[in-house]
Amino acid sequence: MKPTLLLAALIAAPALAQTPPATIGQPFIPAPWWMKDPVIAAMGHVRTEVPANRAQFAVRFSVVEKTAAAATAGATAKARALDAALAALGRERVRLTTSLMTRPLYDQYRQKDGTLVDNQRADRIDAYEVTSILSIEVRDMEVLERAYRLAVAAQPSAIDRPNFSLQPDNELKTGLYEAAVKDAARRARLATAAAGARLGMVKIIDPTGSVCETEVLAGWHSYGGSAPATDVDARQIMVTGSRVAAPPPPAAPPAFDSLEQRAAEVQVTLQPPLRELTAQACVIYGLTPG
Fold first, then answer.
1. CA distance 189 to 290
2. 3-state SS, one letter per residue, for 26-95
3. Which pTM value belongs to this model?
4. Most CB atoms within 10 A, among 28, 48, 84, 240?
5. What is the spatial distance between Cα 181 and Cα 205, in angstroms, rounded to a whole number?
6. 54 has which bridge partners?
7. pLDDT band at residue 131 using 50, 70 and 90 as cut-offs
């Protein structure tokens, strides 16, 4: 082979290897191996509702002093008791993030029309306002109300309303996926029985669901929609035998702690809302004559 022809062959080989089998949108592309015989593609789609297991809120303590140092010391001192009480609940239950915000307060004057105006110049600062911010993330709903009572009893300048979220654990994710596969099998059995056929062997189990949405249609993007989700009970899909029981909330400090005493008198009821979880799974079955 001539050197020129050899060089051209080497250059062309990678380009040929990278050429896709077809372009998305074409009416015909080579069928995958599992479509050589009759098949049914069943999409399992399940949903459930689970109580939120995270709560976030912030508590603010503001102090005004002539100097920034004095205001910082005052704001930090006000937050110290609450910081210690929340930390005593346990790091795995309550996460704390503390920050400070400093705002200068300027000398003020009135205009002729009576409007009060801040004289915002560096040499006209009259005092400083420092706010100590405790950002609180409650990871155990058993101590949520207690943490909020402590925040109220600390008499802060402001308390944000709790924001709830759900962080499903691996056990719940696995159980929900298993329910999606079972739902796919149920849908496949109903469809084949109605069509007068019988299910054969399982060819593909796709946890992403992409096989049912794109590849089966030989080039088109998707079915254009999915079947309604099947409702499942989250309590039935969780493997309770492997769950480790959460330790009980820590005991309250002795009665001489004034913050704990005030917190015990605060009446708070916080109910975590329900959050929706969904899962899909695609199962491809072969078909046999009825």
1. 12
2. CCCCCCCHHHCCCEEEEEEEEEEEEECCEEEEEEEEEEEECCHHHHHHHHHHHHHHHHHHHHCCCCCCEE
3. 0.69
4. 48
5. 8
6. 165
7. very high
> Out of 24-28, 99-103, 207-211, which region has the weakest mean confidence (pLDDT)?
24-28
Measured distance CA(97)–CA(59) in Å, rounded: 11
Q: How far apart are CA 180 and CA 45, in angstroms?
A: 5
Strands 158-159 and 54-65 come out as antiparallel
The amino acid present at 126, given as its one-letter code, is D
Give the tokens for residue 211.
């096989």
Report CA-CA distances (Å) from 135 to 6, 59, 72, 81, 273. Answer: 67, 7, 17, 15, 21
pLDDT tens-digit map of 132-158: 999 999 999 999 999 999 999 999 999
Three-class SS of 179-205: HHHHHHHHHHHHHHHHHCEEEEEEEEE
**Which pLDDT tens digit goes with each residue over 148-184?**
999 999 999 999 999 999 999 899 999 999 999 999 9
Distance CA 63, CA 70 (A): 9
Backbone angles phi, psi at 215, to 5 degrees: -65, -35
Neighbours of 279 (CB within 10 A): 25
| Cβ pair 119, 141 in contact under 8 A | no
Between CA 203 and CA 37 the distance in angstroms is 11
